[in-house]
Amino acid sequence: MPQKADLGKCVVSQRWVMAVMGMMGVTMAYVMRGCLAITITQMVKPVVNTIEKVGQKDLEYCPMPYVPQRQSNTTSTHYEEDTSSRFDWDEETQGLILSAFYYGYIITHVPGGLLAQRFGGKHTMGLGILSTAVLTMFTPMVARMGSTQLMILRFVEGLGEGTTFPALCTLLAQWAPPLEKGKLSTLVFAGVQLGSIFANSISGFIINVLPGGWPNVFYFFGGISMVWFVIWCLVVYNDPLSHPFISEHERNYLLQTIGSIERKKDLAPTPWKHILTSAPVWGLIVAESGHGWGGYTLMSDLPKYMSDVLHFSVEQVPFSMGEIIAVFFVIQILHPTHFVLQNGFLTSIPYIAQWITSIVSSVMADWTIKKQHMSVTAVRKLFAIIGTVGPGLGVMCASFVGCDKLTATFFFTLGMALMGFCYPSIRVNALDLSPNYSATIMALVNGIGCLSGMATPYVAGLLTPNRTISEWRLVFWIMLVVMVASSMLFTVIGSGETQFWDDMEYEKRKNYQEKDESQKNYQESEPTVGDDPSMKKPD
């Protein structure tokens, strides 16, 4: 029952409103970032594996699926898709287009973190998503101008989205109590998987169903993101103290658990020297870079692998619903039906599994810390190992099953599911190390980590000119090595404890108090002239 003072206040938990809206914002960001990965398979001319290529011993190709062609009732003419209007972009060009986003994305991370610390995370994030939404709607027009123009557009989109994660860290530092930090942060960052799910599944549906084809993907997601921006501005606030609708009960709870419910506007200058020389910060940077290498590889290139190697079609996939249930729950393969699924939905299955795992693992992490079964540091490290080594092994297994589509999808799903363990570990570790400067740390961590996003599409494009299983296996070997090495280093030098430089003013006051107390104790214990028998005057 709310108290009288709470009448007129909103009884809905505003920290969860912020978390849900943050999750939706991340979803919009990743939808606009990732929808090009599957849409580009319909923007470019299709791959044709010739008999001569198949005959080469050092190359491996999966057989093309048999797709019956429709015939007219009056003629024998086959109705085939006209692909003459598609773009003639080779694999290297496609890799450059997909990676161009991250060249802009990396630039605005640190400025975005500083802006979020100065002005709060609400508008820093909101305006970034809005700018990306506007540019997304211009994508079809710019793509028709040429690949170079599209690269420039994607670069500018990245500039807008670079503020997203630093801004969210600033908001979470003011809204997430210690014992709910894992759940709230994971809920927010679960938008990464949801964005990938929607980018793949809905994109395929829009391309196949709506008149106009692939341009509708960008119009739809850009428009939805603009709607999100309006709602975000209306219901989200920088901190609990400035929120006009929060209940007194929730405000007091946050005050007691977090200690400060107002964003500090007079923070001491960012302790760059301490941050840049901090071993735990660099351990987090390396861990995020390894996780990012795997995540960006799958986000940018999994649709291409499904299409070019396993020959999943955007329009049809020869999988039954029973087979999908088998992949998801690993129970049994049911008898095939005549159900037809979209390629985008199949590509999104691993992300659905990752989303579920991230939520479950966050509850596990918070429960383990609350019950004191493990320290914060131990939980962060253990979950980071599971979330990096597991996906690398899963993807490698998928590449070794060859053309077995069902088994490959199962291993991709298993690997991506295990990646969800990174969310209550390395994704929230910046808040552990420094709540006050978490935006700056996240800017460094995510900014340097997104170098992987710049590299992986280009590397995959260079290493897979013939789009064979053996070429893609090398891409996945590199992914495994990077992820394992990064998790090992994080295990050695990572930490889950708040660093001393998080509040330098507090440390100074503490040192002064300790110094004064020590001097006072010394003076009290020091003998005076009147107290020292040897110093007394003789009678």
Write out key terms for the chains shown:
globular; 539 residues; disordered N terminus; 23 helices; mainly alpha; Growth Hormone, Chain: A; disordered C terminus
Describe the structure.
This protein is mostly helical and 539 residues long. It has a single domain (12-46, 87-262, 271-516), classed as MFS general substrate transporter like domains (Growth Hormone, Chain: A, Up-down Bundle). It has helices spanning 14-43, 51-54, 91-105, 109-119, 121-137, 139-145, 147-161, 164-175, 181-189, 191-209, 215-235, 248-258, 272-276, 279-309, 321-329, 343-370, 376-400, 405-419, 429-433, 438-449, 451-463, 469-493, 504-525. The termini are far apart. 52% of the residues are buried.
CATH class: Mainly Alpha
Q: Provide the succession of SSEs.
A: HHHHHHHHHHHHHHHHHHHHHHH
CATH architecture: Up-down Bundle
Largest sheet: none
Overall shape: it is globular
- The share of residues in extended strands comes to under 5%
Task: Enter the CATH topology name.
Answer: Growth Hormone, Chain: A
What is the radius of gyration computed over CA atoms, rounded to a whole number of angstroms? 27 Å
Distance between the termini: 80 Å
Binned, the helix content reads: 55-70%
The H-level CATH homologous superfamily, spelled out, is MFS general substrate transporter like domains
Low-confidence stretches: 1-9, 49-59, 68-80, 314-343, 535-539
**Structural class estimated from helices and strands:** mainly alpha
β-strand number:
0
Mean pLDDT: 77
